[in-house]
Structures are given as structure tokens and as C-alpha cells.
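Self-study notes.
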Amino acid sequence: MRRSNMLAKQVISIRSALSLGFVSQLWVDTTSWMVLVIEVRPNLLSGELERFLLEDVSRVGDVVLVQDESVMDSEYKMLGLETLVGYNVVTPGRRNIGKVRGYTFNINSGAVESLELDSFGISLIPSSLVSTYALFVEDVLEVVSDTVVVHEVAASRIQRLTKGFWDTRKGGTSIDEPGEYSDFGSKRVRSDHSQSTRRNFRNKKFRPKVREMEDDWELPMDYL
């Protein structure tokens, strides 16, 4: 399943048939490359957020079904989890590959299968307008400071998914052709790649409700 296909789906309790909100974000453990936590809000623009585990999902179709409201009774420690969307993708030599606009994952196991890249990192932009590419997670070395570091040879294994209208108009080259990455530009990303963010996710319960600690909150990248 694509991440974008999961976002904005309504979450319904099977037992009570009540709406529990809408999926606003997914959180990935980049050590195991598993989608672990689903974030829900009463509407897509504002409201108190709550979270539950992907393993608590009973079924996904036009809506997301969970057994009952109790799946959201606990708070989960988010240390080590990443949203990934908007993150820069670079090689150890700091060659810019693109930005993450989404990913695909197995809805049953939560395993992330591939990252979807473009030049903006905003999945709200249709793939018909901007060229998109797939990168397998096996090529990822680490995630550091909003940056995904990949093997140098990963660049040659990237697969083009779509040829965007904007790139066609400006005569951008394919990533499979000589002169690859011209779609992505030559931005250099500064980060300390020696600092690893491989951290373990601990399923630790705190308060019975999750509340935002800040006055302001950021929309998921899909709604920017």
C-alpha cells in the first residue's frame, strides 16, 4: 500500500460503529523499516491527536477498521520514529538524489518496501506533473537529521515511476539516461553522516490520552 492511499481515511470502530477520526500521519521505525504508529485527528485540519499501532488495524478499504476505541487509550513513545516525507536523499559523498514524497509498505506486516522520490518532497503535487522515482529500502544506510543516506551504487538502481509534465516541458533527462539527476538539481546537503539515528522503538505507555504540547502544529506534508 502507498502511504498516500492511507492518509485521510476515516477510522471506524467495529464494535460501536463510531468514527474515531481521520488518518493524518504514519510513523516509521527506520531501524526495522516498519510502519508502527498511525496518527489520527478528529478532522484533517485541527484537533487533539491520538495514536494507535498499525497492528491494531483490522481491515483497510474505503475506511480503516479497528476493533474499538480502546486501541487509542495509550500514548506511545515516539523516539526513533520518522515521518520521512520531505527528507533529503543523499549519498555518503553528499550527492543529492532527491526528496522523499512517500513510500510503499505491506499493510499486514508494516514493512516498508520502497521510498518514492521526486524533486520537491511534497506528495500533494500530482505525479503527472513531477517525475517520480522508486528507491528500495535495502539501499538505505541511515537516516540522519531529516536526511536519508543511501549507498553510492543506489543511484544506478533507482527506477523511474512517472515522467512529469513539468520535466517534459523543460526537457529534463531521465534518471536512466546519461546526465541523470538533472531533474533533482545539485543541492548539497550538510549533515554529519557519522551520527547514527538507528534507535529502537519502545512501546511504552504514559498518559491515557495524547495531547499536543505546542500551541501550533504542523500539517503532514500531504496537506501543505
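Second protein, same conventions, sequence then structure:
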Amino acid sequence: MSLHFDGEIKITKINMGPYNNNGYIVVCPETNEGIIIDTPAEPEKLLSEIGNVKIKAILITHGHQDHLVGFAEIRSKVGSVVGAGVDDIELLPTPPELGLSDGAVIQFGKRRIQALSTPGHTPGSTCFLVGNHLFSGDTLFPGGPGKSRTPEAFRQEIDSITKKLLVLPDETAVYPGHGDDTTIGEAREQYQAFASRQHPDDLHGDVSWLES
């Protein structure tokens, strides 16, 4: 577990499950209202960190099962609405109350978190932006994009990353669905190195900005 607090937002990051997943609790410190981002295995780890925070929504970055193993338990214990990208709704164990399109905004306390539609890893992959904090799911990691299943999906993911994420300020912190954090500035620099090289038309799968 790690804690990030910049005076505007309190972020608790919890490492969960066998695949190094991250679950997040994002809180408005002025009102103690918050949201949960993703529901991996070992939901008790996340639930134990909620304390007296009033959870207003559970937001799902995409519909892959490693992000949903704890969904039923967390949803039943928290009892708040669920939001997910409109094109991943059918992948969730039960339908969410909120089908999120690009630009959708969820209010929690005095803060607003915005959904950014970033298809590629899955059709409904969605990142969430609050202030200068980006929750990137499996779309963007330190060193590369999330795994893509086809060349077409990879090109779609690159389009999402370049048009929706790398346009954010350099100092924007990036909190991915697995592993360590990064920043938009670091990701942009690495992507530019990748983009400066020639690549096969069928490139997809696990891609590294610096090695592929």
C-alpha cells in the first residue's frame, strides 16, 4: 500500500492479487468522499483501507477479469454505483449503473473525475483523470502500452495514447493497473523514441517503447 497526497487529492494505492494489480481509493480530503478504481483479487486489502470514507462510485478501467475478481464483494460491501466504459459493459459480472462515454464526469465531494475513452487494450478501455492524476488502467504503463491482441487493436491503442494521454502536461502522474507509476513527461519521451523508428505493420502484443 502507498499513499499520495498533494493537498487536493488523497490517493491510496493497493497492490492486489497474483498479477501485481493495483486498486485505488481516491478521496476528496475536504469532504471525505471518494471513489474506488478497479476491483482486483484480494478485495479485503482494499476494503480495509476505506475506513470512514464515503464511497460515491466504483470505476472500472476495463473488463478483463484480473481487474474484476473482487468486484462482487467490493460492490456488495460498498453499495455505491458502478461506472465502466460503454463498450466494456458486457464484460462486467453485473451491469453497471453508469455507462461512461468519453468526457463523462463523476463528482465526489468537491472534486470531479473525468472519463477518457482509450480503446485498444479492450474496446471500452477507459482512463480516469482528476487534477494532474491519471489512472491509466492497462492502456499505459512505464515503458510501453498495454498488451494488444491484434495489429488493429495496437494501432487503436496508440491513437488513444497519443491523442488522449500524451497531450496532458508533463507533470501528470500516471497510475496504471499493474506495477509502478510513471509520468506523462516520461511516457512522452519514451514514445517519441519508439515513434522515431520503423516498425512492422503487424506489430502488436507486448510492445516496449524502447526495445520494440
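Instructor comment on the second fold: The first helix runs from residue 43 to 50.
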